Structure formats: C-alpha cells, structure tokens
Amino acid sequence: MAATKEEIVAGLAEIVNEIAGIPTEDVQVDKSFTDDLDVDSLSMVEVVVAAEERFDVKIPDDDVKNLKTVGDATDYILKHQS
Amino acid sequence: MNATNRTVVVTGIGATTPLGGDSASTWDALLAGRSGVGTLDEDWAADLPVRIAARAAVDPGEIIPKPQARKLDRSAQFALIAAREAWADAGFTGKAGEDTSVDPDRLGTVIASGIGGVTTLLGQYDVLKEKGVRRVSPHTVPMLMPNGPSANVGLAVNARAGVHTPVSACASGSEAIGYAIEMIRTGRADIVVAGGTEAAIHPLPIAAFGNMMAMSKSNDDPQGASRPFDSARNGFVLGEGAGVVVLESAEHAARRGARVYAEAVGQGISADSHDIVQPEPSGNGIAHALQSLLDNSDLDPSEIVHVNAHATSTPQGDLAELKALRKVFGDDTDHIAVASTKSMTGHLLGGAGGVESVASILSVYHRVAPPTINVENLDPEIDVDIIRDEPRKLPAEGRIAALNDSFGFGGHNVVLAFRTV
C-alpha cells in the first residue's frame, strides 16, 4: 500500500534523525537537506538509500541532485512509489 | 636559535586507552599496575585461537554523537577524543583562528595508525556481501583511508600547515611524533597535534596475527598474558586506543604562557633491513636509531633515567631491544630504569607510540616511572634494570630524560626523547 504524504514526511524525518541527528520535529517539507538539516553530500546518499528501502522506490543518482528539500523528496516518492 | 633548529616542547597531552578514557585515568592505572586486558566474549571470538584483548576502557560511542560517529572509523574516533583532550589541555579555547593565539597556517597534525580503518573495510565488505552494492556506506573511503584520523583531527582544530600520516606498522605513532618535532624544528609549523591511534580488534587481524604466532594465546589468564621480560612470555596482546600530544615551539609556548610538560628533544630513526617481520636479533638496528638520536641532539646519555620500552612480550623482540641499550651505553646503564607499559595496556600497534609517549612525558614531568607487571621470573638473559610491580621514583633534582622506543614490522625503529625543562 502506498504511503501518504504525511507518512513519507514522518519517515524521512526518522531517517534524517538517524543519519544527521536532527530532531524529527525539525524535519519539515520546506527544509533543505544540506543547508538546514546538516546532511552533507555523502550522507544524502545514505538518506536516499534508506528512503528507497522504506518506501519501495528507486531513486536514480541523476535524480538525487534535484531533491533539495524534504518537500522535493516527498513529492518524488509520492509520484514514484510502487 | 635559528629557524632550522628550534626547541620543541610538549604543552598538551591526551589519551584514551584500555586503562582509562583520558590521560589522567590512564596514568593513575599505569602507576597502580593495573591490567587492561580482558576476555573477548563476542560470538565471533569463540573459534579464534586468541580470545583476549585490551579493549578501550571507555567506548568511543559513549563520547562521540552517533551522527558524527557513523562517518568516522573507530581509529579516527579514538584519535579525535585524545586530540580534543590534548588541545584543551594545552589551554586552547577553540579551534585555530577562533582562539587567536593559534594561526591556522602555522598549525599541523601528524596522526598515524599501523593498519588504518580495517574494521570499516571489513565491515563494509560484510555489508556488500549480505545486503548488496547499494547499501555500502558512501563514507567508506574517507573512513578506511589511513590518513583519516589525521585529517579529521586537522578539521577539528583547523590545521593548515600540513596534515600527515607516516605509516610504519607498530612504529607509526612514534614516527608521527618524530615527524611533528621536525616540522616545528625546521620552521614549517609552530604547533603540531601528533600521535598514534589503532582500532583493530576484529576476527581477521586477530586470526592473522595469531597465525604469525605473534600473539599470546594465554586465554585462561587474560591479565597475565602480556608479560614483557618474563621468562614465560609468549606473544603480545592486542590493544586499542590513542595517545596524542600537542607539540609547540618553545618560543610560541613561552609567548602565550603555556604550561610545558617536557622538551621533545628529538628522534632517532633506523631500519633493520633484516627481515620483513623478525627483529634483527643482535639489536644492531635499534642501536643505530638510538645512536642517531644521541648524535643529532644535545641529549647527554647521563640524563637518560628511563626507557619506556617497545617490549611487546615476544621472546625475540624484548631481548633485541635491551641488547641495543647495552651496545650504545656499554656498562653505563645503571642510571636507566626500563619498563614496558604494554604489560598493562596490551599492544596498541600504531597507537602504542602515542600512548607510550604520553607515559614517557608524564614520567619525566612527575619524576616517577610506571612499572612492568607480570614479571614473575625475569628472563635470565636480561641484565638491565627492569622496573617491576611498583612505580619507580626518578631523580628528584636535575635534568632528566626518558626515551620512548617503538619498532614495527618492516624493520622500522624509532626512538623519541623527552626531557625536563
């Protein structure tokens, strides 16, 4: 069953918390991974891999650069989840 | 003094070892003669011939927040903890630049390990096999590279004069400190954070060292297994942790009114060119390093009152080192008291030179040297003064010096000298 937008944001918040130590409540759709959430370029790869597993979605490397904010990632997952 | 022969002093120390999470607790345990060796009770150790090791007394995971720790090999975590302690101990209030008494362009780091990020490499290979390509951590390369600890410490203190990692197996930590002394002496830097670290307690290194017959298999007696100079010694016990010092030009230290532990007099270096792993049995290679130290510094042999020996508790190595002392000093060794703190810490490989430099520095600073434990029956071939069981008071007056010996597979010999100021 596909995840809702709220479930995806909550799931990304848990992933970012695990990887970057940011409190889950600070992970909001308007937040930039690199500028606001302390996710550097290598850690972003970890976020993507964890999101792929959690939401059963494939995020090719070429698409990762377009995922600047939590909202970008949420929309991408909503659209591509199987 | 000209810019190519500046005096170098020690203004900060830090350590995290099998005996304690900092240099003070480590030093207390060394003087108390406490062993840091224990049984490996993990499942992976069950089938190994060696099931003992000297784990760090404080796990770095208790100190470094998880988001940072997941990007750092365990050896880099140890180095960072010891370096932070040394940096604060030297009196700095922030990284270079933030603390305006340190110019980032005049600050370096030289931190080394013998093996590098071996647990990262092997752990990620397990991930690759069990979970697939996609799950291999993108942090793997900066974690496993041997220069990782030095680079991470360099980032932490904002070092821009140079970040280096000399690799010479179990001599690496001492070679790092020797390299740092030269950076300051020759004018490349005013301050260098230097030392050694190692984190290799994992079944593969243990199986490999065990198959070389280099490790003690006294699994029934962990605390008695590391017994340098004893007749029944049967190999080293693997330890983990780091020792780091802040070295500084005497002039820079004086200008900011820093507390000075000791002068870092210099180093003597040589290579055995004898065998890839066996020590040269007559001690000629080690004697060459020691002689080189004496020839290239103003160290007077009569000042040397203590040697923190490399002595790892192997039958051959311990003797070769003491033969070298005889070769260089002849009959004049009565003023030198020798100890192997590896009897308590185990052998930290590349970390040994860092931790044992800290011990040597504190020995001259406090004028007391730690003992060697577990010497029940002194090897009858040994004819120098070994400190046994109890710490030894060093001369209360006058200038005294301690040597820290470190040797490594490959035939590397490094001798460092620290002296009261």
What does this structure look like?
The complex is a heterodimer of chains A (82) and B (421). Chain A is globular and about 30 Å long. Chain A has helices at residues 5-20, 33-36, 41-55, 61-64, 70-80. In chain A, helix 1 (5-20) crosses helix 3 and helix 1 (5-20) crosses helix 5. Chain A is mainly alpha-helical and 82 residues long. Chain A is built from five helices and no strands. Helix content of chain A is 61%, strand content 0%. With 421 residues, chain B is of the alpha/beta class. Chain B folds into two domains: 9-255, Thiolase/Chalcone synthase (Peroxisomal Thiolase, Chain A, domain 1), CATH 3.40.47; 265-419, 3-Layer(aba) Sandwich (Peroxisomal Thiolase, Chain A, domain 1), CATH 3.40.47. Helices cover 33% and strands 19% of the residues of chain B. Chain B has helices at residues 23-32, 66-69, 74-89, 118-131, 140-144, 148-157, 172-185, 203-211, 222-225, 250-255, 284-295, 315-329, 342-345, 352-366, and strands spanning 8-16, 38-39, 52-53, 107-112, 162-164, 191-198, 241-249, 262-271, 304-308, 337-339, 368-369, 385-386, 392-393, 401-408, 412-419. In chain B, strands 5-4-6-7-1-8-15-14-9-10-12 form an eleven-stranded mixed beta sheet, sandwiched between helices. In chain B, strand 14 (401-408) and strand 15 form a beta hairpin. In chain B, helix 3 (74-89) runs parallel beside helix 6 (148-157), helix 7 (172-185) packs across helix 14 (352-366) and helix 11 (284-295) packs across helix 12 (315-329). The longest helix of chain B has 16 residues, at 74-89. The radius of gyration of chain B is 20 Å and the shape is globular. The model of chain B has no long low-confidence stretch (mean pLDDT 97). The interface between A and B is small, with 10 and 12 residues.
